[in-house]
């Protein structure tokens, strides 16, 4: 039997980039997946169906509470419950690296709204359904960047550091309801959206490889094993933790 058979998972930002790989991996392991993204997720739904899995998609702006509430309601309508929440949606690939004093306030606020509030709102509206059945897995996607203090991406690094703190605090509140809350923190990963932004590849890829114990690039497939661990019963006594998957870079 697949390790997530009978489970329902939401993946925010699940239509493209690393999120697409999260959606595919969860479905391949038996979960029924709701792909919640500002982009159309129908191609991923079709890809999952072709492989024999079950998925649906809905347009969702994670920084807008009404949109999140509608997404949760649609998931319940289609699948009847929610067992796994993967808070993956974030603003990163389109951000151009720059010195700390060149980030204008509006862009700073946009990063915080999507990356922090966009993690809080799905938790806020999914958690009651997990509390009702005394079980659930919440996986917040942070980054290895806060551990290293990556320069020239200050609002992004700040927002992902906040997600690590958010996870630790929320795990305390939801632990009494038998809900696991953990963080998956990837290093710089070559996804299709990341490769499309050559600025990040040029600025970060070589430095990332040099900083790692494992001297190679990271790809989305390197992250799915950790995701499945955190989503499955294998992690039933793990909560409030940040699993850093970066080839050993944060160790240096």
TrEMBL record:
<protein>
    <submittedName>
        <fullName>SDR family NAD(P)-dependent oxidoreductase</fullName>
    </submittedName>
</protein>
<keyword id="KW-0560">Oxidoreductase</keyword>
<dbReference type="InterPro" id="IPR036291">
    <property type="entry name" value="NAD(P)-bd_dom_sf"/>
</dbReference>
<dbReference type="InterPro" id="IPR002347">
    <property type="entry name" value="SDR_fam"/>
</dbReference>
<comment type="similarity">
    <text>Belongs to the short-chain dehydrogenases/reductases (SDR) family.</text>
</comment>
<dbReference type="Pfam" id="PF13561">
    <property type="entry name" value="adh_short_C2"/>
</dbReference>
<dbReference type="GO" id="GO:0016616">
    <property type="term" value="F:oxidoreductase activity, acting on the CH-OH group of donors, NAD or NADP as acceptor"/>
</dbReference>
<dbReference type="InterPro" id="IPR020904">
    <property type="entry name" value="Sc_DH/Rdtase_CS"/>
</dbReference>
